[in-house]
Every structure is written in structure tokens, then in C-alpha cells.
Amino acid sequence: MEGTDTKVCTFTFKKRGKRQNTRKRRASDSKDSSSEDDSEVVRRKKGTSGLMVQKTNRLKARDDVKYSSSDSEQEKNSNIGVSYKSNKSGQRDGPQDMGATATVEIDTEKDKDALAIAERAVQINKEQRGLEDDRVYRGVNNYTQFYEVKDTASGSAANAANRYGPKRAPAFLRSTVRWDYQPDICKDYKETGFCGFGDSCKFLHDRSDYKHGWQLEREMEKGTYGEQDLSKYEISSDEDDLPFACFICRKTFTNPVITKCKHYFCEKCALAQYRKSKRCFVCGTQTMGVFNPAKEIIAKMEKNKERDDSDSDTQDNDKGSDSNTRGNVNQVEGESSGEASEEED
């Protein structure tokens, strides 16, 4: 046991070499040395102390530069971030008339639009009329026309009533127009009482009647402002139930009568039908030969007759007034012609 050698394990540690990518300090330049003279104040911005507010620290640097009287004006301007140089005049910028004579240049130029091309063609044709052909090409719109076209867009381009191409818009007119068709009121709900959007509709659900400003102004001019027609929305249900013609002859009633089953006929038609059958012509109910005068239809017919007579009278009065005015005009013309003949004599 003593003769045997004991082996001892040795550990070696590798030394780390210097990193090749280490950043070296840059040599100071003359510019950097000159900037050291300027003092720089660093201020730490105070943050609000709140549990729900978290911000990173920010540094606010401010250059504390003191200018001396020896510094030039150019150096002072270079240190200022914003500079403005006056033009030494008391006039405002822009046009002198403040844009009063500015023109709208959104349309085609006046020397290139369709009207200018047509006018140029008409002028060239006038100059070349009666001369020999000089065989000069003047464009596709300036071919020689051997006959003068009238009352057409291409032939009367100089005429304001019949122009070639779209009408020129006024260049000095600038207007802002807003058409207000009863704003913020749901049109569907006002006309029908139903809207597909329901409560989510952004317009007002109201079925009342509103008037615009121009409607109120028109009423003021006519003198009807504030007047209300109380019978405008009246609906008479009695007139809707009454028929307007006989069920048998399909013509206007002549001496109308009514049966027990509330059906209306002419007296002549009812008696002729009773000779054929004693039942009602409409529903087949037994009439027993009883026909009473239809007082409601008779009153309605008299009312309509009076209204028609009044309308015809107003029309006759209008025609009479027109004829009287014409007669007066003819009489005045006759008197003037008589006076002229007397002067000639």
C-alpha cells in the first residue's frame, strides 16, 4: 500500500482575454473643447405622485447661454430657433384688393373651352369666305364651311341664347349655399308614422307641421300670416257612405229612393226591377214594394248643384269683365284714330 502512488486531481482556470469590441474613448476635438465653456443646466421633471400614474424619468436640458455685447447679430440669430424678418413695409400680405377681383379657376380656361373653340371656328370661316383655298391645315375644328349654318349650336356660337358646349359660370361670383330641407326630422316617420331605425334613428320622430322661413315670408306678403283653416282636417264620414250612382243603370241618380236594406236606386230603375223581381237588386232581400225617398242623397245633389251654379256665375263675371276691358280698349283706340283723322283734315 505504501508503494502505490496517489494521484492528485489538479484544476486549471482559463484566463479571459480582453474583448476586441471594447469601445474606446474618442479623442477630444477643438469643437468639443469650445463647447465646454457653455454651461448646461439639467433639470429633472417632477412627476405626479399617483398610484395609477406611472411615468419614466425625463431630463429637460436647457442651454444657459449669456450673450455679450461683442457677439455679432448673425451669431445671435443662429442661436434662436425661430426668426422672422420684417419687409419694412406697412402693407398687408396678399392682393391689394383683398381678393375682391379674384377669379375662380376650377373650370376650363376661357380660351380653351368648347365655346371659345366654336367662336374661333366661326371667325376663321368668316375670314376665309370668298377667298381661294390656301391649303393650310388649321385644325379639326376649323375646316372650311361652304354654307352658313343657322339656329344650331355650332353655327351660332356667338349667340347667347344658343351656345355650343356648357354655359360659362360666373368667374367673379363666389357664394356658399346651404339647402335646408326641414332638418333633423325623420321624413319616413312624419309621412308614414313608421321608421325602420326605430329608437336608434338620429332624426326627430315628430309628425307635426313645420314651415320654413320662405313660407312664412310668402304668407306675410299675401297677408295670410297667422290665419288658420279650421275645416282643413275635417273628414265627413256621412258623404263617404253614400253612393254617387245608381246600382242598376250606373248613372247619376234621378229621383233617388232607398229600400229597407239601405240600397239606393233611381225611382224608375227600382220600379222596373220590381216588375221583374220583388227582391233587392244588390243583396236579394225581399223589398215588399217599399221604396222611400233618399233624403240624404237629394240634399247632397242640391248642395252640389248650388256649388256648380256659384262657380259658373264667377266664371261668367270674369268673362264679362274681360269683354268690358276689351271694349274700353277698342273705344279708346277708336277715339284716338278719330282725333288723328280730324287733325289731318
UniProtKB/TrEMBL annotation:
* Organism, scientific name: Lingula anatina
The answer on whether this UniProt entry bears the keyword Transmembrane helix reads no
Chain ranges of the C3H1-type domain: 180-208
Q: Does the keyword Nucleotide-binding apply?
A: no
InterPro entries on file: CWC24-like, Znf_CCCH, Znf_CCCH_sf, Znf_RING, Znf_RING/FYVE/PHD, Znf_RING_CS
GO CC annotation, single = U2-type spliceosomal complex
Mind giving the lineage of the organism this protein is from?
A: Eukaryota, Metazoa, Spiralia, Lophotrochozoa, Brachiopoda
Pfam families attached here?
Answer: zf-C3HC4_3, zf-CCCH
Where does the record place Basic residues bias?
13-26
Sorted alphabetically, which PANTHER family does this protein's record hold?
A: RING FINGER PROTEIN 113B, ZINC FINGER PROTEIN 183
Q: Which domain of life is it from?
A: Eukaryota
Q: Which GO terms describe its molecular function?
A: zinc ion binding
Which of UniProt's keywords are assigned here? Metal-binding, Zinc, Zinc-finger
Q: Which GO terms describe its biological process?
A: snoRNA splicing
Composition bias (Polar residues) maps to 67-89, 322-331
What is the name of the protein in this document? Answer: RING finger protein 113A-like
